[in-house]
Write a structure and sequence with these properties.
Blueprint: E1 2-6, E2 14-18, H1 35-42, E3 87-92, H2 96-107, E4 112-118, H3 121-131, E5 135-138, H4 147-157, E6 162-167, H5 172-180, E7 185-188, H6 193-204, E8 209-210, H7 212-224, H8 238-248, H9 253-260, H10 264-278, H11 283-292
Parallel strand pairs: 3-4, 3-5, 5-6, 6-7, 7-8
Antiparallel strand pairs: 1-2
Helix pairs in contact: 3-4, 8-10, 8-11, 9-10
């Protein structure tokens, strides 16, 4: 655009000059930003929590660590190891020196604890009720009540209590009667302490354990089928067989009680059980049975 201008001293002369462009009062001059600054303006900052991508600095802020409990280290505790399960034992033997030796070798193991001792079958039964042990380690030959009778009573009245017979007998008659009385295992007294502890652990875990020589005897008898025609003969305990022999010999209950160092009432109880197990209800019948099984000879008895 042009505007007219009058020159000084001139008349009628019109000069055309360019008119300056009008500028807004609020308009500011535009400046071209340097390329480096423009890039920094247009590039948004990355959040600290995003994982680093290729080309980004490895010194980016790492993810926040999980919260920790004051004084406890990591928020999640490592599982604690399972405590050792102690097996509670009751020792039953009529010899104090044997009980002392057993207590010494068994208590040395971290998972075995002797909670009581009994010197006969009656005391073993009573302490089993009072102490509720896991396993009863019991001898066979004890006064008042032998190991087989005590094992039967314990298993009948306290099925959760396991019985391990510890004896020096390894003949077939003992082995089969031990199995039938409810005992879970049978080891000989010449066994090493390690094997005895292994037997205790096995039957406590729900299994059974028999010394190798004992197991072989039992297997041989099973294969032969000994007494297979009269299985009732194997149901008698050692004490019941003792009573049966004396009954067949013609002794009275009082004489039997004095001979075995037990009470008269105990003898009567044994006789009742013998008759019930064998289904024989007369003295003559019991005598014939004892003769047939060779428990006695004709010279030992007076038939009546």
């Amino acid at each position: 655009m042009y505007q007219s201008s009058s020159a000084s001293g001139s008349s009628g002369t019109i000069l055309l000059e360019p008119r300056p462009a009008a500028r807004s009062a609020t308009q500011t001059p535009l400046r071209k930003a340097p390329s480096a600054n423009r890039d920094s303006i247009r590039t948004p900052s990355l959040p600290a929590a995003l994982p680093a991508s290729p080309g980004l600095s490895s010194r980016a802020t790492p993810p926040a660590a999980p919260p920790t409990s004051p004084g406890n280290g990591s928020h999640e505790k490592a599982p604690a190891p399972n405590p050792i399960r102690t097996i509670r034992l009751l020792l039953a033997d009529d010899h104090p020196v044997v009980r002392t030796g057993l207590r010494s070798c068994l208590s040395a193991r971290a998972n075995l604890s002797v909670v009581g001792e009994a010197q006969d079958g009656f005391e073993a039964l009573r302490l089993s009720k009072e102490l509720s042990p896991d396993v009863v380690v019991m001898d066979l030959d004890m006064p008042k009540m032998d190991g087989l009778a005590a094992a039967q009573a314990i298993r009948r009245e306290m099925p959760h209590v396991k019985v391990l017979i510890l004896s020096m007998h390894s003949d077939s008659d003992y082995v089969m009667r031990i199995v039938q009385c409810g005992a879970s295992g049978y080891v000989l007294k010449d066994v090493r302490p390690d094997e005895l502890a292994k037997a205790i652990e096995a039957i406590h875990g729900g299994g059974s354990y028999f010394s190798p020589s004992v197991a072989q005897v039992a297997l041989n008898q099973f294969v032969r089928g000994r007494d297979g025609d009269d299985p009732d003969a194997q149901l008698l305990t050692n004490r019941e067989r003792d009573v049966l022999v004396r009954v067949a010999q013609g002794l009275s209950n009082k004489e039997i009680a004095s001979s075995l160092n037990i009470g008269v009432r105990t003898v009567e109880t044994h006789r009742e059980r013998i008759m019930r197990k064998l289904n024989v209800h007369t003295i003559a019948g019991l005598t014939r049975f004892a003769l047939a099984k060779k428990y006695i000879s004709l010279n030992d008895t007076t038939l009546r």
